[in-house]
Amino acid sequence: MENIFTDEYFMKKALQEAEMAFDKGEIPVGAIIVVNNTIIARSHNLTEMLHDVTAHAEMQSITAAANFLGGKYLKDCTLYVTLEPCQMCAGALYWSQITKIVFGARDEQRGFMVMGTKLHPKTAVVSGVMANEAADLMKRFFISRRK
Ligand SMILES: [Zn+2]
């Protein structure tokens, strides 16, 4: 049987979260955390609603996953996030020692790569999964804000 639990499969779930953010007028970024092919955290950006610059999708998912696991380290966990994490989220992910990060679109301005933020040496990174879908959602959002 073919394995349905591909990176694309889980990134679609993260994109659904990003759509929810979009519908609330939040910058559309969604994240989920998966362990053993089970989603243990799902979240989307809520910085406007919570008036909190730290309410990025990744930050909320890190907290939710640690609560679920009953431990602070996200061992054997994979984060799927529609946009490249910023330096704050990369820093939090560093402390979580998460096993793998899969992200969609690059953030050329404020992503952790251009900022030179380091992830934990144990963390594997995959980029560009459904990047066009994530980038299109961002574009649609900023066009709708200008109207
Ligand atoms: Zn962030």
From TrEMBL:
The keyword Metal-binding applies. It comes from the Bacteria. The active site is at residue 58. It holds the Pfam family dCMP_cyt_deam_1. Binds 1 zinc ion per subunit. Residues 5-115 form the CMP/dCMP-type deaminase domain. InterPro entries: CMP_dCMP_dom, Cytidine_deaminase-like, tRNA_aden_deaminase. Coiled coil: none annotated. One of its GO terms (biological process) is tRNA wobble adenosine to inosine editing. Its EC number is 3.5.4.33. It is an enzyme of class 3 (hydrolase). GO terms for molecular function: tRNA-specific adenosine-34 deaminase activity; zinc ion binding. Transmembrane segments: none annotated. Its cofactor is Zn(2+). Keywords: Hydrolase, Metal-binding, tRNA processing, Zinc. Zn(2+) binds at residues 56, 86, 89. It catalyses: adenosine(34) in tRNA + H2O + H(+) = inosine(34) in tRNA + NH4(+). Catalyzes the deamination of adenosine to inosine at the wobble position 34 of tRNA(Arg2). Belongs to the cytidine and deoxycytidylate deaminase family. Homodimer. This is tRNA-specific adenosine deaminase. It comes from Flavobacterium flevense. The gene is tadA.
